[in-house]
Amino acid sequence: MKDKAISVLKGHKxxxxxxxxxxxxxxxxxxxxxxxxxxxxxxxxxxKEWAFSISKLDWTGDFNSYTFMKEPxxxxxxxxxxxxxxPYIFTLTLGYSISCMVFSSALENIFSSKKSVxxxxxxxxxxxxxxxxxxxxxxxxxxxGVVLALCVFGGLLHLYFTIGRESxxxxxxxSAFTGLSLGYLWITKSDTVWVLPFTGTVCLVMFFLLxxxxxxxxxxxxxxxxxxxxxxxxxxxxxxxxLNIQRYGATAVEYYGEVMDDLTHIKSGRVDExxxxxxxxxRGLYDISPTLASVRAELEIAMSDHSEYDTNPHDGxxxxxxxxxxxxxxxxxxxxxxxxxxxxxxxxxIYEELEAAFASGRLERIEIKTAEKYYIDTPEHCRELAGxxxxxxxxxxxxxxxxxxxxxxxxxxxxxxxxxxxTRNKAASFRHKHDHYIxxxxxFPEYDGIEKQIYVEDEEGNRxxxxxxxxxxxxxxxxxxxxxxxxDARNCHFKESWDVAEGKKDTRWxxxxxxxxxxxxxxxxxxxxxxxxxxxxxxxxxxxxxxQKDEINIENSSRKAxxxxxxxxxxxxxxxxxxxxxxxxxxxxxxxxxxxxxxxKRFAHGNAWLIVTGLGLSVLVLAAGIALVDLTxxxxxxxxxxSCGYPILMGAQLISIxxxxxxxxxxxxxxxxxxxxxx
Length: 679
Hints:
Strand content: 5-15%
Shape: globular
Distance between the termini: 48 Å
Radius of gyration: 30 Å
Helix content: 55-70%
Strand order of the largest sheet: 5-4-8-9-10
């Protein structure tokens, strides 16, 4: 029995190393807080609202201006984690570890030693991007995108190495895995096109390999495996469209794209290429489009607000990266998005009015050539695009802004509560000057409109502070929709803090209701909410309830966790130049070795070279796409947009280095063997 156990362990040595390293990573990230991005109605907050709706089986909720504007994949992931009570950071870290295993294990096929595979796996596992504040900690799609990208590349490599095997089972499984990963990535991030060249090229190479083995294998079922990655995109996209049709009766606001295309192709002689529609042009359009003029007030406010977000906040103009959001917000404030049909009718009217103006000559359309669209129409633009592409690659190679952070908030903000509830992770420690702090709202229907006092008391009935209530229109509107509006609901929000008397550290705390000096009810304050004692009915919610001691512990824990992870990240930053240039030199060396092999009609190391070349070109395509956005729309060379490229770039570098080291070791061994024979 003992011998059998030892044999099993030896046979799965690589998997045991993978699991041990992954367990260490899971332990190290304990204590990291989530990063809540305030004031992001079309990003983090949108995903949060969608996740809550999906968890209630209500798809993405009621129709509004953002319904079709983002991919729902990340919100689905959040909803599943929420329903299964899985902490967000724990789950995402686990997913990243698994994706590293998938990618690294595929490389067993190109190395003679498993040591190289382990080196690559550990380097990817502890890559700074995997615990970066804008990737792992931020409750947005960047972290899930990195996980899925690694799964796609790893799945394709596994498919490539198993497609020619006698059994169809393995390639079928890897094909399905890759298809689902690619399809889910497609409905999670909008900038997924950069993965397709690698996917298409690998599938094409596999097709020709199968043609060459058509006498040895049944190639038809294997050829079908090559279609699954693309079918994954169609399957996931179709699922989203079907759910949109079922919930909203449409898959998009049809004329939105047509209107935005017209608005951004009006001839103006503009100087700044990032500003497709000036404010002066927009004001001229009010005379041309009565429909647009009907929402002028709301649109002008939205344009002024969004002009402050771009790279030149003082010029009053809105750059391309923010223009669409400004229009959506302005139209939404004007009530255009009452439902999908109303919104589409509104956009259709604008489209017809603009098209009529183009036809009559009142407006002149700019015809943008394909070369101009992709910023390669002039030598100067080509140089700028190439330079910015290299900047994006250098940005990834330098690990800029890839640090974990310990977040601290100095004032209470309600959105933190929702994110903490959804992710089951602490958002940030909350600094307050007193022993205890509570915020929320509370109502007593039986005493509505009656003069009363509510005090914070300990379990012995000692009074501390009286609650002071603030305006609460949100609560009143909510209860009004439910048909149970109360007059007191207009002012029922409260925030209160207090210090504990000596010897009362372990007491329970209550909110006690007094009417005419008589206590009528005691409401126990607990972490999960209020608990009533007695028969008095109440309605209320705790937004936050915390003690100074708890917050200090949370802050210390998050600082220790971020310091741990950043200590590892500092090793990557210290060796960034060495790894980058060694990777480049190794790739050149590997290319030379391949050329020498081809001259001798050998292709022993061809797979390694093809993989490195494919990964490198994928990173190049991603960097070029981000560079184009950076030059034409908005600043985009940052970790948020480039996150998926970090591990792929490192994978290409380390495969080159390890493969060249392996070749060098082989040459050295050959030289030594030759000397021994001569002796």
